[in-house]
């Protein structure tokens, strides 16, 4: 873990140097940049803001490269069976598609390192910022609340991927007692996640934030999602946590109903991926991208060597829909219509003559502003954010959790229906559903609404169920045949393997997750 701590300190300090004040007195009073350390850096409020900005920036690790024609984010799509590849030039990505990944697979290693870097950065903020004086109390509380959300979010991803993992809540050095930490039981990890999110809820955050920072709607939705996960596998806490999930999601829904211009569903599916709608209405929390710092990383979803952008024939096609999944959408579903969440035709070089792509591709992360559209040239600057929490998910969390408490209620039905209404679908009357049929209706909606947003894999793990796009039903996780590889999911696939090098660096991690080579 040492290399992570060192890198964190340097990056946080660099951010502070770039973003900190430049007044003459401040310049004279402050340490020279070459002499900054975590112990003498956190002295003024601007340092706290810069350090928090470094945590946000490190969340973009998911968009970093993972070898030729691949990015880290593809880890959570390749395993689901809803996507495949047209190029097959990245062996690590191929191993994920083929369900033969191991502790050397680069995406697995990069996710571990990326998440723990976010955690280490957040730990620095949470440890150092409280002592900054003078500093406005509300500003300090807000920064600490945001940092706790970001740490909770990283731990929530990590615990679902690896199970028992090291729990680190303080900055580490080589002299730290827990410099080589052992794995902590999942129950304790989840307690820390809930504690962090509960603290973030009390931090005085605004309900929404157009700058893209953590906000109350995002905190409450993530907390409801954590409770929903705890209700399912592997903790299996059941009804108590379904109720917690439903109640917390309902708080967001209640606010949205009272403030429909602030939080709600976009009227158009196109608005889900517009630069002009970023951090607004449905987008409760997103990873922020701007080409001045880092451009949108989702290009691997573009079709292989077809001229859909200003770049002409380009794109890798290394994450494309499995045909059977695309075909599983209901007739008339606007999400499956051309240029809904998928597209089968586009304009040559982005803004020229229309042409057929020959297959269906993911349109959900396609930026018309940068790539071009009918008769309008693209800006060539892909500043599109990547959604992390959408209000559509809040509605579906509520519908699922509330239904698990008994028969489907009108409120749960209304939440499901809102998502389906936007997709142009007719929803059967409430009285036609049983608890079991409503449960599967919500699950199906999650697969079709939230696909290709790094969510589906976690649904598979917490439910121990997988959508069968040929039967329109749900299979048990173990034994389900992934259409992308024609291989069955195994018990071992419920967790990722620990990275080989990490286990060598830290012998206290000890036993590899079951089913993977030691």
UniProtKB/TrEMBL annotation:
Matches recorded under SUPFAM superfamilies: TPR-like
Subcellular location: Cell outer membrane
Domain called SusD-like N-terminal: residue spans: 26-228
Domain RagB/SusD: 341-516
Keywords annotated in UniProt: Cell outer membrane, Membrane, Signal
GO cellular component, one term: cell outer membrane
Family (UniProt): Belongs to the SusD family.
Protein name from the UniProt record: RagB/SusD family nutrient uptake outer membrane protein
Organism: Larkinella knui
